[in-house]
Amino acid sequence: MTHPATDAPPPQEAVGPLMRSLSVLRALSAGGGRQAVGDLVRATGLARSTVDRVLSTLARLGYVRVEGRDAVIAPGLLELGNAYLAASELPDRLGPAAERLADALDESVSLAVPDGDGVRFVHQATRRRAMSLAFRIGDLLPAERGAPGALFAAVWGADAWRRWRERRAADPTDAGFPAVPPRRDGNGGTGGPENPGADFTLRDGDGVTGGPDNLSADFAARGGNGSTRSADPGEDFASRVEAARIAGWSLDDQLIEPGLVAVAVPVRDPHGRPLCAVSVVSHTSRLAAADLPTAVLPRLRETVAEMERALADPAPTTPAPEPTTTRHASWMRASKQELGPEFVESLARGLLTLTAFGTGRAALPLTAVAQATGLARATARRALITLEHLGYLASDGRLFRPTPKVLDLGFAVLSGLTLPEIAQPHLATLVEQVHDSASMAVLSGTDIQYVARVPTVRIMSVNITVGTRFPAYPTSMGRVLLAGLPPAERTAHLSRTTLTSLTKHTVTSPERLATLLEQVGEDGYALVDEELEEGLRSIAVPVRDRDSRVIAAVNISTHAGRRSPAEDRDAFLPPLRAAAARIEADLRTAGRYVRVPLA
After folding, report:
1. Is 32 left (phi over 0), alpha (psi -120 to 50) or beta?
2. Can you tell me the distance from the alpha carbon of 97 to that of 85, in angstroms, rounded to the nearest whole number?
3. What sign does the dihedral 292-294-295-298 (CA atoms) show?
4. CB within 10 Å: which end of the chain, N or C, has fewer?
5. What is the Cα–Cα distance from 453 to 580, expressed in whole angstroms?
6. What digits encode the pLDDT tens for the residues 14-67?
7. Are 112 and 119 spatial neighbours (Cβ–Cβ below 8 Å)?
8. For residues 510-524, b (16+ Cβ closer than 10 Å) or e, as one string?
9. Could you tell me if 151 and 224 are in contact, meaning their C-beta atoms sit under 8 angstroms apart?
C-alpha cells in the first residue's frame, strides 16, 4: 500500500539510491518474503544489476538470503521493526496488561495503532483454538474493516477522509491489504462522506470527525453496526465512526471475515487522542456480536484505564540506552572495501539510522542519530529526510521518530517464524562445512523430538527424519537438554526414565548419568559414542533463548569408525558452537516482541 508521504515529489536532499533500494525490500516483503530475483526486477522496474547490488547489501546486513534464484528475507530484518516497537514502548508498557486481559476473558486480545488510513497490529495475546486469530504483528488492515479503525477515524480531518476515499476508489477490492480477504462485492463503494457539508459534517475545531448527529442511543451502543452487515464494510463507515465517537468503543461484526467479531476501546494519550486501541476478538461460535460488548466491555475498560495509568507514569530516569545494532559507520566502510560496488552504502546508511531508535530513544534529533551511527551529520540528515519522505519516520522539525510503517519491511511475514525455520539455514551452512548431518531437537517428555534436520550425502549416513523421537538419556542432544534443566526438574525427569541398555556402551547407572549431566553443564557440550546405536557418534551443544534458558539442542552425527572421539570433538565443536550462536542471535531478534514456537 502506498503511504501518503510518497505521493509528494521527493525533496531535493532525498537519496535516490536509498529510495530505489527500499523498493526492492518492499517488493520482497509484499511477495511473502520469498521472490525470484527476476520477479523483483519486474516488480520494481530496476535494472537486474541494481537489484543484485541491493540484495548483496541486504545479505551483508543479515536481512536477506539469496538461495539459488530466490531472495528470502531473514530474521535479522526484524531488528528494524523491533526498533519501532521499542521506541513506541506500547508492547513493553501495555503488553503485560493485554496478556492478563486475554487470560481473564479467555479470548484473544490485540493492540493496534493508526497507520495512515489503515490500522496496524503491534501486539497479540492469542488463545489457541481451532478457530483463532490469524493476524500477525505488523499486519495492516483498512480502517473500515475492523473495530479499531472507527476509533482512529474519529479524529480524522477533511484531508484524511479525502485520502481514504481516494484509496478506496483506487483499490476497490483491498488488494493493497493482503492480511484481509478481498472485499466481497468488489464494487469500490466509497462508504464515506462523498460531500461533507451536505448530510455529513467534519467539525474541525478539535479535529474530531463528525457524522449524523441524530444517531439513536441504541445504534451508538452497538458501535454503529446496526443489526445487519453490509457486503462492503465501507458503506456505513462514517456512521460507525460517529457511533464509536459517541459510545467510546467500537464493534466489529464480521467486517473482516465471516465469524470474526471484536470490540475495541481506545487508549488515549494525555491530550485525549487515541494512541492505540485494545481489541477483544472472538468468534460467533463462542459469542454473537450482540453479546460480545456485554461480556467483555467492563473488564476491557478496566484494562484500558490501567494502560492509560501505565502510559502516564514517567519513564525511568536512567540514561537512554545505546542503540542495539552492532553495526556502525566503520562496519559499513569495511563492507564497502570488501564488496566494492556490490555494497550500496546509501541503503546500509538508511537502514542503520532506523536502528538508532529504541527503548528510551523514541525521538531523536539529528545530532543523536549521527552520534549513534557514526555517520557524518550531513549523511545522517539526508538519510533521515529520505526516510521521512517515504513515511518510515515522522518529524516535528527537530526530532525524528519511527512510524508504524517500518513494520511493512517484512515484520509480519517474519513474525510467524518457528525455531526450526530459524535454524534450518544455519544447519545447512554447518553441513556444508563439516560434510556430516546436522539436526535440532527439543525435549518432549522423557524423549527428544527432532524438529529440524539437514542430512549429508554419503554412502553411509545417518537416516533420521523430522518428528523422530529417541529417549533423551542416551543421546547427545538429550543430555544437553537435560543438563539445561533446573536441578529439581532434572531429578524429576530422571526419576520418570527407565534406563535401558540399547548397546553395550549405553550408560544405565543413574549415578553415572547424573555425573555426566553435571559435566555436560560445565563443558557446554555433550559427546555420545555408540550409546544409542552401534557405530553412531554425535556431539551436541545447547541453544538458549533471550533469558538464557536451554530450549533446544543442535548436533552433528557421524560414523564412529572414521575418527577418534577426540578428533571429532576438535573438528566439530567450533563450527557447531558457531552455528548455535547464529541461531541464538536470530532467535533473540525474532523473539523480542513475538513468541517463537519451538516446533
Report:
1. left
2. 16
3. positive
4. C
5. 14
6. 999 999 999 999 999 999 999 999 999 999 999 999 999 999 999 999 999 999
7. yes
8. eeebeebbeebbeee
9. no
